[in-house]
Design brief:
By secondary structure, the chain is α/β, with parallel strands linked by helices. Helix content is 41%, strand content 19%. It has helices spanning 3-10, 30-36, 77-88, 103-116, 145-156, 190-203, 216-228, 247-255, 261-269, 273-294, 308-317, and strands at residues 15-20, 46-49, 55-62, 65-71, 91-97, 120-124, 174-179, 207-212, 235-239, 298-302.
């Protein structure tokens, strides 16, 4: 079932969903299940599974020689999606990246999605490779998320890279894209960033999931400005509870977002990370209650492989 169909079927009721990260290479899936199990009581209609792009590793070869190789430290997105659908009977949303994949590799992945009955995908440009200062498009791959969206839309209509065009909507994907209430890190202005978002929607995106934010006014303004330029698809807020003091510096640095002064003071005065987690829970509950009043279609939580704090938050909301 498509994400947009879940939203329509809810008839205005806000849904609960989560995003998870594949475990490191060589790790079993049971720990992932242990973090998903406690959240199933809130009946998530879908679960996102992230995709990691490739990175360099350096292998000691002896005699002072080092070999540089490319690997993926967290593979298995599509397999995890299939396992979750089978185990929990919920829809899954694999993240599909431009970075690290050729167009042909992307197409193979999407064909596998069709075989597995996966109707939804999240189309993302992806970040720069670890150790590189800026994003570089993969040779033979898509440069921008909008191009990836158009490719996914073509496949959903039966048009493949090497085949003659076929007209069929039978396998049309429901495509999600990212939105940035505080603009993308590389965008020169908010207006510019919103135009890029509209291009993705015009290319075939069916819904938007935002980057995390901690000030609801920024989300409200983002939605208002998006609607003003003709973006009509659902805009789902992405929520991340603070859990450690290090988040005060790490999140703004990584995602180029601002934290409200009230939240900064509360976290700074917490005596330990257990107290920080409680601050994060209380802040997120308050934040989500306001978003519920606003009528958001889904509250989408970035779990980062942990569920205890999200479970406590969800108990207050659903």
């Amino acid at each position: 079932m498509k994400i947009t169909e879940h939203i329509q079927a809810a008839q205005g009721k806000t849904l609960f969903s989560i995003e998870i990260i594949p475990p490191p290479k060589g790790t079993g899936i049971e720990d992932l299940y242990k973090n998903i199990d406690p959240l199933m009581e809130f009946k998530p209609p879908f679960i996102d599974v992230t995709t990691s792009r490739e990175e360099y590793v350096y292998l000691e070869k002896g005699n002072g020689l080092v070999e540089r190789k490319i690997t993926r430290m967290r593979p298995g997105t599509l397999g995890i999606c299939a396992s979750i659908q089978y185990k929990y009977n919920v829809d899954t949303v694999p993240h599909v990246l431009c970075g690290g994949f050729t167009k042909e590799e992307t197409e193979y992945l999407l064909v596998d999605c069709l075989y597995l009955g996966i109707d939804n995908v999240m189309a993302l440009r992806g970040d720069a490779m670890k150790g590189e200062n800026h994003y570089k498009a993969t040779s033979g791959g898509h440069k921008y998320a909008g191009d990836l969206v158009a490719h996914i839309a073509d496949i959903g209509h039966g048009k493949f890279l090497t085949d003659e065009e076929r007209t069929s909507d039978h396998n049309k994907f429901c495509i999600g894209v990212a939105g940035y209430p505080e603009k993308h890190i590389e965008a020169p202005s908010m207006k510019y960033d919103l135009q890029r978002l509209k291009e993705k929607v015009d290319a075939g995106a069916d819904y938007v999931v935002t980057q995390m934010f901690f000030d609801n006014q920024k989300y409200f303004q983002f939605v208002e400005e998006a609607r003003a330029i003709g973006i009509t698809v659902p805009i789902i807020p992405g929520i991340k509870p603070l859990a450690t003091k290090s988040h005060l510096s790490m999140l703004p640095k990584t995602f180029k977002i601002d934290l409200p002064e009230e939240l900064i003071k509360a976290v700074s005065s917490a005596k330990d990370n257990a107290a920080v987690r409680q601050v994060g829970i209380e802040w997120t509950v308050s934040q989500c209650k306001e978003l519920l009043e606003f009528g958001v279609p889904v509250l989408h939580f970035y779990s980062m492989g942990k569920s205890e704090n999200i479970q406590k938050i969800a108990k207050e909301l659903f």
